[in-house]
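Table S2 (text version). Query chain:
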Amino acid sequence: MERAGSAVEAGEGREAIPLGYPRLDADVPVLHAPRLAGKAGELSGYLAQGYRSLGQILSVEPPRIIAYLVADEDWERAPRDNERPYPPGLPYFTRSVEPPALVLPEELSTVFRPRTAATLPLTVWHELAHAFLLGQGVVRTPAWLGEFVPQAASAAVARRVGLPLEEHLSRIDREEPGFTVRNFRGPAGAEDQMSFQNLLLLLGAAALEEFGEGFLQSIFHTLWEEDRIVDGERAEELLGDSLGQGGREWLESRPEF
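Corresponding structure-token output:
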């Protein structure tokens, strides 16, 4: 059995506050650059919404995690799984510290499109969903399923808290990107990566509209219970069955899929 992200386990036990940032206590504590106290408060609100909503949607005890709001000048010193820093402006989840952490940049990279009032909270909830999913360990899956799950989860949180999701979705470029979520292949440029994520968000929002949020609990728990690496055929089977009656046929009918 091979669990996704297992390569980072050697980082466990490292100092939890390597940047010496002040701490904003909450359900998900936020360690932030001193000059970003205002932004930390905003992010803490989004984290609280996502943390509580995902716990309810998935019927699980939320994982113990923290968040870092990292200033641009400190980005290279942020906790991470790999030796090299991640590209500036791209949030990520890391288990290289204890407790595991969401690492959030001072400002999102310009590759994030569209830019609406929903862009930042959706991004925060996406990374938070990764934290929930990886909190219990999952086997490796195709990239499209591994990213579909947090995109659909972020859309579910948006629906729960009344975020104007439809406005955001309406501003996604619907022009054919030249691939579907299943045949997208890396390495890819930033624009194609963003198109891939937007296709997944559209698919996730459509699934919520068609089947309700119950399928999220099903797919999360299914992935936690899988004990073998999931190939493409198995991934389609797992998601289709999680959606419920008619799920596989519905997936095949979707242009994103």
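Notes on Table S2: Confidence is low (pLDDT under 50) at residues 1-16. The longest strand covers residues 66-70.
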